[in-house]
Amino acid sequence: MASAVRSLAEFLGAEKAVVRVELSRVRGSSPRGEGTEMFVAAAALWGTIGGGQLEYRAIETAREMLRDGDLSQSLDLPLGPEIGQCCGGRVEMTLTRMRGSDMRAAIRRDSEATETRPHVYVLGAGHVGRALADQLQHLPVHCVVIDTRPEEIALCSADVDTRVRAIPEIDIMTAPAGSAFIVLTHDHALDFLLASSALERGDAAYVGMIGSATKRVKFKNWMRRNCESGDIDKLICPIGASGSRDKRPSLIAAFVVAEVMAELTSEPAAAGPRETGPTPRSGHHHDQRGMWA
């Protein structure tokens, strides 16, 4: 499915004149960090530096530059009552009218960032799997949806990588280090096989399996009998712990996406998968027929 969101290359290719806004220095609390970029054209934007009055001032200044022909400016703004914000920090911005070489460099940086996005493997393209894909397609991850059933993959309309696999373990084995694996197939035995394969890697940022506390105990016993390695304590099951009794797939997916992104963007994720204890949680599970998978 083609994405409706323009890439940076498409944006820059469509606009005649663009100002690049960069947060060149950040002190204290700020909505975005140093190096964050936003691109401003006369009637369009690409990216964000955090919204609010900070972004409004940047856009206003950038468009004044486009009208007046200025090549560069800088802004130094306190994020306090002076501009109607309460972050408490201070931000310095550099605004530069882009030349062809600047545009090529920006596209290259964006491409490199896209290539290094963490991979999220959704193992199961049922109702929840497709709902996960619908939400993950908008986030800075490379989402891969895998199922043994081509008819389920055909129902996935999100702009993600979809794969029909007779043996999904191969994709787990070849996944990049630091990937996230969400296991929610139509079959408990297959869930066990895929979850154990992900745990045996030892370098996953997140391994989650849909199910109940009972399913977790059964999986733990199964893994002890059948696997030589893999830390069961790193398995998240149930997934998407929220305390919510609403089991609609889109809501389950929202809780799971929040859980996965918290792991992928945490500081420990840069060094390796974070330890998670085996304590059962009130997350989401499907019934024995797999109706939510």
From TrEMBL:
Top-level taxon of origin: Bacteria
XdhC Rossmann domain sequence ranges: 120-260
One family name in Pfam for this protein: XdhC_C
Annotated stretches, region: Disordered: 266-293
InterPro entries in the cross-refs: MoCofactor_Util/Proc (IPR052698), NAD(P)-bd_dom_sf (IPR036291), Xanthine_DH_XdhC (IPR014308), XdhC_CoxI (IPR003777), XdhC_Rossmann_dom (IPR027051)
XdhC- CoxI domain span: 14-69
PANTHER family documented for this protein: ALDEHYDE OXIDOREDUCTASE MOLYBDENUM COFACTOR ASSEMBLY PROTEIN (PTHR30388), XANTHINE DEHYDROGENASE SUBUNIT A-RELATED (PTHR30388:SF6)
UniProt xrefs under NCBIfam families: xanthine_xdhC
UniProt protein name: Xanthine dehydrogenase accessory protein XdhC
